[in-house]
Amino acid sequence: MIVRIATEGQYQIDSAYLDKLNAIDNDLVEAIAAGDQERFKALLNELLALVREHGTPVPPEELVESEIVLPPPDTTFEEASEMFIGDGLVPG
C-alpha cells in the first residue's frame, strides 16, 4: 500500500499496518471532536512515525498513486479539524 505524507513523499507500507493506521486515525477524529489539541498533536506524530518507521520511501522519480494521503507534520489543529471528520483519512 502506498501512503503519502504531504510535503515529505510517499512510502510503501505493508497493508498489515492498515488496522493500526485506521485506529490512530479514529483516535485523531475523536481528539479533534473533543477539542484536545495536545492529544491531536501526539496522535498525528504517532501516525506519521508509524508510516516512516515501517514504510519504505518510494523514490521521487517513481510515479505511483497514493492510496492514503496524510497531512504534513506541521498541520495545525484548525487545519486538521477540516480534514479529520467523519471516518477520517484512513479507509476502514
Molecular structure report:
The chain has 92 residues and is of the alpha+beta class. 45% of the residues lie in helices and 14% in strands. It has 3 helices and 4 strands, in the order ββααββα. A 4-stranded mixed sheet has the order 3-2-1-4, with helices on one face. Strand 1 and strand 2 form a beta hairpin. Helix 1 packs antiparallel against helix 2. The longest helix has 18 residues, at 37-54. The radius of gyration is 13 Å and the shape is globular. The two termini are 14 Å apart. The model has no long low-confidence stretch (mean pLDDT 92).
Please give a quick description of this structure.
The protein has 92 residues and is of the alpha+beta class. Helices cover 45% and strands 14% of the residues.
